Amino acid sequence: RTTHIMLKGNFLAPGSVVEPAIPAKFHPLRQAEAANRIGVARWLTDEDNPLTARVMVNRFWAQLFGTGLVETEEDFGTQGDVPSHPELLDWLAVEFMKPTVSPTVPDDPNTGWDMKRLLKLLVMSASYRQSAQVSPAALAKDPHNRLISRGPRYRLEAEMVRDQALYAAGLLVEKIGGPSVRPYQPAGLWKELADTEYVQDTGENLYRRTMYTFFYRSAPYPLFTTFDTPDLQTTCTRRLRSNTPLQALTL
Question: Span 135-143, mean pLDDT?
Answer without folding.
Answer: 91
